[in-house]
Amino acid sequence: MVPTTACYFGSLHLEGTMKLVKYVVEHKQRALVGKVSMNVENDVGYYNKTDKELQEVEQFIKRVLSYKNELVQPIITPRFAVSCSNELMCGLSKTSGRDTNVAFRIKFYTKLYEYKQKSHIGKQKKEIEYVLETNPECASYTEVYQRCGIFNSPCIMAHAVHLTEDEMSEFNVRQVSVAHCPASNTRLNSGLCPVRKLLDRGIRVGLGTDISGGDNASMLDAMRRAMDVSLHLAMMGQPHTTLDWKEAFYLATLGGARALRLEDKIGSFDIGKQFDALLIDVYAMGGPIDKYDYNSGEDQLVELVQRFVYLGDDRNIRQVYVNGETIKKF
After folding, report:
1. Which of its termini does the chain have fewer beta carbons within 10 Å around, N or C?
2. pLDDT tens, 196-211?
3. Based on the number of CB atoms within 10 Å of its own CB, is 102 exposed (0-12), middle (13-18) or buried (19 or more)?
4. Coiled coil where (predicted)?
């Protein structure tokens, strides 16, 4: 399923990520694009020195904003605490923070632009162990990010499979969002994210694909896998964990908009919002859904959406709208 909005992890490389930005702008998608930041040395040389990385992030922000495209925003993207030093993450949090004296604060038109951040947390238990071993002064993975100021601006964290109760409470208080990536978490044997628990604690949750950790970029696939993961938790004896199709649909629409702090613009058809939508032909010729109707009225409409969530694919999509404009026809 074609997403009208995406939050992209780009590459370590400035020019490569700018090519992604250019592609997104040309295809009129709504997007948050991040140049991935890493400065911890590794055998393959996939890192930058701290000063160079901070300079490139500043350049990246300026170049994205130079498009003056309201649909495409830069997002600060430290990969995660394993591949970023505290010095780098502190520098990046200043880039996105509220201190107007910080050198990296950039004026966009006549106002200050407050940057969002994204990273990932708690994907693997061994990852958590390593982060705590290298940050002995911190009681949790979350505290590492807190100390570096990562949570001082709107923040999206991928995975969050193994959060403690205290960490969930902190996510709620700080309004940190979670991008649930069920396909990736399953493929990499990371664990089963307790999405119901996150939602019950007031945490904003959307869906992610984590390509190429995941194997499918479709939001339909992410919805179905999210339901599967919730059922697996229930089968393991964890009560009240299941997500039904309506909740999965919410995670892929308004839930995702809330996770990105865009719910005032998109995510539903409320009056005053921008029109981002897919035109769906449930019974498309040659499509995967057989035509039969046993209900009528509102029940029939709900049933059509349910069939699309469970069985639909790209063959059912006829048009894609972003900000009221048709950007794709099939």
Report:
1. C
2. 999 999 999 999 999 8
3. middle
4. none
